Amino acid sequence: MADIVKRELDYFWFYFSIQFEQVAGYWILGMALGSFISVFGKEKIHVLFTAMRNKKLGALGLIPASLLGIASPLCMYGTIPIAASFAEKGMEEDWIAAFVMSSILLNPQLLFYSAALGPAALIIRFTSCFLCGALAGLCVRCFYKNKKFFTFTGFGNTVNRDSDPNPFPRYIKNFGRNIKATGIYFFIGIVLSALFQRYVPEGMMASLFGRENRGFGLLMAATVGVPLYMCGGGTIPLLQQWLASGMSMGSAAAFMITGPATKITNLGAVKIVLGVRRFVLYLAFTVLFALLSGLLIDRI
Question: Has residue 160 been placed in a domain?
Answer without folding.
Answer: no
